[in-house]
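Board work, copied verbatim: Acetyl-coenzyme A carboxylase carboxyl transferase subunit beta
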Amino acid sequence: MSWLDKIIPSRLIRSAENTARHQIPEGLWSKCPECETVLYRADLEKNLNVCPHCNAHQRIGARARLAAFLDEAGRYEIGQEVTPTDALKFKDSRKYPERLKEAGKSTGETDALIAMGGTLHGLPVVVACFEFDFMGGSMGSVVGERFVRAVQAALQKKVPFICFTATGGARMQEGLLSLMQMAKTNAVLAQFAQQRLPFVSVLTDPTMGGVSASFAFMGDLVIAEPKALIGFAGPRVIESTVRVTLPEGFQRAEFLLSKGAVDMIVDRRQLREVIARNLAILTHQASIGQAESPATPVAEAAPAVPDAASNATSTAEAAPEEVIAAASATAITGEAAAPAQPAQPPQSSSPPQP
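↓ predict structure ↓
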């Protein structure tokens, strides 16, 4: 026993400790899993759950993502009336309805997918977003049905469709019903592609299992967030099955980009602008800057004749996402920009002199 314990009664020390403990609310601080920096949670949420020190992209809820992604006005939810049922009376260590009730209580959602219509920088879109905290974002019959209704709403309005994936795959508790959602979602996306409307797939951490094996890579534009885990089976399962050591960074977004499996990696805080700019190209709309603030008209200057050097320079200076979007637009619409015709020398109308 120290001299301080002898002077101050232990009951007063315990009382002071309890008072200090109660003064700090639960969940006020968060620790970055990458750099282990202690972050003030309110500041972290304002930064869309991206660590300001090491740029690590932590997981973010579906509603928080949709609130940050879509324009504030004109949002409406799609398919929220569809709710899950225990068709198979499935039971593992716990009954399926009990798991659904617990997931709903912790997240405030009825299932793992939220679909919304709205605008992105004024461009009408339909967006679907997975909620990973609801049973690991697993895809069951309700997720598949809401996904189909969202795509059908985009088809009806002839607007682009965007999906943010964050899932462990098909839902085990629904058996074959969950596996059928892979075919169901692919079928409606095939109808969507026939109408030549753009589908943007954004792969976030994690995108695994039946979702990655079905529609996750079917987008006209496939975007990944930095260091997102993307694949079918996990790395540990593959290593134990194949009995090989996988390369460093295997199944991460950067590894997939180097192999051509994704088109680009975009910081979460820049997704609004990057996707809006690409959709403007894919739908032949005015760019977001032109749509919000039209340029002041100026006097027309004489057009310059393009040459090969200037064309090569402009192509090299184009942003990577714009080049990808232009290629996707050609694939969607079947139309490409006509090549510039060489200038013809003027012909004289007077007869030649003898």
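The mean pLDDT is 84.
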